[in-house]
Amino acid sequence: MNLHVLSHADTNEIGSIANNALKELAKSDWSSDVYLKTIFDRLQSETNVLTAAIGLVRKNDYTQQLIAQDALFDQAFIGTKQFVYANTYSLDRAVAEKAQKIWAIFEAHDLNLYRLGYEQQIFVTHSLLNELDKPKNKTLIESLDGVVAYLSQLKIQNEALETLFQKSKEDEAAKSASIAPSTQKNLIREILNVDLFPYIEVMSKVKPEIYAASFKVISEYVESINIKVKARKTRSENQVEAEKLS
Known about the structure:
about 80% helix, 2 domains, mainly alpha
């Protein structure tokens, strides 16, 4: 029968086959079969690694937090910008002129910087805040209505966004350093095809009363997955051919 997992099986399919085989084998006591017990333990260990690797790749702890924090940043930036702009219409000419100077600084740093990617947004905002913190500009800002309070919030929200962004990058670095699911699934496929399946297939003929039932269940599951893999491969090949002819 030469039972094996097809090379085009994806990570989830191989993980599913491994789990199914482990569950089926766990129904019996294989303590007297040291060889099979060794294979079982290794397959269990490597499947656990694959499960953890898949969870790590799918898990994204910071996406929603960044979105929420970015929304707070946007509010603080737009509020600050709008108050500066409102002051340019002050009936007090001196205030209006001071506001125009501060507004020019905002223009130089991109009035829509809040629409930039996180990294650029944080960098440009730091540049903006550094310019606004210069003594001559701080003096101008202090004479504008409502700007000081919003500017203080902008600093707080930008710092919070930068902290989250750095943590997200550290998290990504940790994930990239971990075992890739694609690499791990190939290792599990090798254990199944080279170690487990050939052994239990032979033993199901040598001692059918002990091994045949488990081999039958595992075989049927593997074949059901292989049918899906073959169908997917055929669809992919047909699509490629259709694109060549179009």
